[in-house]
């Protein structure tokens, strides 16, 4: 129908064509688009486990982790929600360009679980890089 408010049917037709153009490339790559849709639908989903075993850290185990190789787009809330799959996040600090963050967990075992689960994993799913997760120098700096 015609949009009575604007009175110009052309705008509606153009809008419809734009929607169709955005949709067509997705239907050509069914397997890829389903993965992308899942990533878009739940960006807080926990990433698949890393392929390589996690190397031993040179730093002492503690409750604070440094996560690097973060690649946007994601929100701080999405990051915190994803990290909370490993345990209670007490605090989080992220730099302004969202490439690295410090996260403090409630216990050392939760931080260890997060490091084991996330080092070498891909998050968000659109990222070309794998996460680098190691213990921070001194958890007291971030608590």
What is the mean pLDDT?
78
Structural class: alpha+beta
How many strand elements? 4
User: How are the strands ordered across the major sheet?
Assistant: 2-3-1-4
Q: Strand fraction band? A: 5-15%
Termini separation comes to 59 Å
Describe this structure in words.
The protein is 36% helix and 15% strand. With 143 residues, the protein is α+β, with helices and mostly antiparallel strands. Strands 2-3-1-4 form a 4-stranded antiparallel β-sheet, with helices on one face. The longest helix has 20 residues, at 9-28. The N and C termini lie far apart (59 Å).
Please tag this protein with its features.
143 residues; alpha+beta; 4-stranded antiparallel sheet; 4 helices; 36% helix
